[in-house]
Every structure is written in structure tokens, then in C-alpha cells.
């Protein structure tokens, strides 16, 4: 199974940190944020990885290279200025991802989730990893039914972690260009073709400089210190 890391976002909310450094290369506990994903994928045996990029993308390629130092084979999917959003970025990379189900990970999260837990095959079109709702997203996104299916409503809602396994068929009918992934997922959910799991481990959405600092303190053991 191949994996893709979404790394094309401009990181507007992270400015000025992202004015000269792409968000995936921002340091956390002395290492680039994307390195944590790469090492976790290697541990899980997912050795073929596609990384998309747009803003300052050449820096990402220069820093990571072929992926050999992580034991990976990395290819890149460059996007035009402004990027293609999540859906458009994945669609463009499909030829590199192949016909089998593939993993997609948001590049601006940090987690200790074990990617080896992800299903290698799908009964439907997608499998989503859901987490407890963080303070910045208290209402969540989806409900996980006891049968393992994801629903829009029906009970307590959880937050989509930015980790999923997708089938090529999810993108049937999509035209190249800029578009989000969420409408495709919601359409598949309405058709009853999305499974999910609840992950209760550590997960951080690195959307602001403050959250980046909080993660840095968490990983360096200085969580009790003030900014």
C-alpha cells in the first residue's frame, strides 16, 4: 500500500513562520514536522510515499530528497501556485498512487497513531481515522456508528484526524483542477460506503503558531512552561 502526505498548503494561519519555510519543514522538538510522518510510515512498512507541494516546494524536495535516509522511496507531485486543495491534489497524484487503496495524511498534524493499523483493503470507498474533538473544533465532523460505519449524524460526533485510506473509485467523475476532498467524502458517507475507527491516542492539529509551540513543549517535556 502506498501513502501520500498532503504538504501543498500555504499555511496562512502560521504566518510569518511560513513566509520563508513551508509548514511541513517547521521544526518541532528539533526536527521537521514532516519527518515524524516519514518515520512512522517507514515503521509501518509503507515505503512508497508521494508528497505534493506548492508553496516553497523546492525546499521540501531539497530537505527530504529520495527518502532513502528514512528507508522510503519518495516521489513528488508539484502543484501550481495556490495549490489544488485536498481533492485536486490527490486526483493529480493518482497515477503515482496506483490502483490499490492508498493512505493519505494531512501534513499539518502530529500523532502517535500506528499506520500499520490501517486496513489494506476496503469494502467501501474510504476508511477514516476519527479522534476526540479538540478545543478548536468542539462540534466534531462525523458520527462513528457501532457497526464501524461513518455517518453525518446519529449521535456523538468525532473529528476527522486527517488520516484516511481511499479507493480510486472515490474520485470517479472528478475533473482536474482545484477542489476539496470533503464533498467527495460526504457523498460516499451518504451512500454508506465509508468505514472508520476511533483513535484515542495523541493527536495535534498544527494550525497556528500557538499550537506549534504547544506541541513543541509536549515533545520536549516542557509542557508546564509559559510561552
TrEMBL record:
Could you list this entry's UniProt keywords, alphabetically sorted. Nucleotidyltransferase, Transferase
Any one Pfam family here would be NTP_transferase
Instruction: Please provide, alphabetically and separated by semicolons, the GO molecular function terms listed in this UniProt record.
Output: nucleotidyltransferase activity
Q: Which domain of life is it from?
A: Bacteria
Q: State if Nucleotidyltransferase is listed as a keyword.
A: yes
* Occurrences of domain Nucleotidyl transferase (ranges): 2-123
Question: In the record, what lineage is assigned to the organism producing the protein?
Answer: Bacteria, Pseudomonadati, Pseudomonadota, Gammaproteobacteria, Thiohalobacterales
**Identification of the protein by name:** Nucleotidyltransferase family protein
